[in-house]
Amino acid sequence: MEKFAKNISRGGLLKDCFVASLLAMALLSGCASVQMSGYISRADHPYERKFYASFEKVVGSTVYVLKKKGWSVDSEADPAIYERDDRYENNGYQNLLIMTSIKENYRVLYSTFTHLNVFVHSLGNTCTVEIRYEAQTPLIKHFVSVRNDQVVQGILDALEQDING
């Protein structure tokens, strides 16, 4: 009993409570979830690359590369459903929007939720691939990022290799 009284008088109980609350917060922070729609609105600086191949070849290679890089395709849609663009006005372009499933990346005290939108626009034998990236990290404040050069450039480089190789 004397040890307990000395421990309380030195602030030991306060220190124990603080450590327990930090541990509880660390365990509970991994349980957060995020609401994300499949569509990512227009980014100021989307990642784009032009390929000289057929629409079918580029779409097939895109799906293959995404799976190879650990992304799963959630859905495919006509981009005109989500946004307006001259390429969607029946003027010879073929267009497709590929949306990936949400990927959860675990960290020590938090998780980041990421997903991609891949737009394929084709006119003749020329395709433009545009990739939009979004990551959300829910902590005390909700952080959103739309840039990840390493991930997206890796996908575009692999796509280029698959199409040209």
Please describe what this structure looks like.
It is a single chain. The protein contains 4 helices and 7 strands; from the N terminus they run ααβαββββββα. It is an alpha+beta fold and 165 residues long. It has 2 domains: 1-31; 34-164, Alpha-D-Glucose-1,6-Bisphosphate, Chain A, domain 4. Strands 1, 2, 3, 4, 5, 6 and 7 form a 7-stranded antiparallel beta sheet that branches. A hairpin with a 4-residue loop joins β4 and β5. The longest helix is centred in the first third of the chain and has 18 residues, at 12-29. The model is unreliable at 22-32 (pLDDT under 50).
Count of alpha/pi helices: 4
Into which percentage range does the β-strand content fall?
A: 25-35%
Which CATH architecture of the largest domain would you pick?
2-Layer Sandwich
Q: Helix coverage percent of residues?
A: 25-40%
Low-confidence stretches: 22-32
Give the integer mean of the pLDDT values: 84
- Under CATH at level 1, the class of the largest domain stands as Alpha Beta
Structural class: alpha+beta
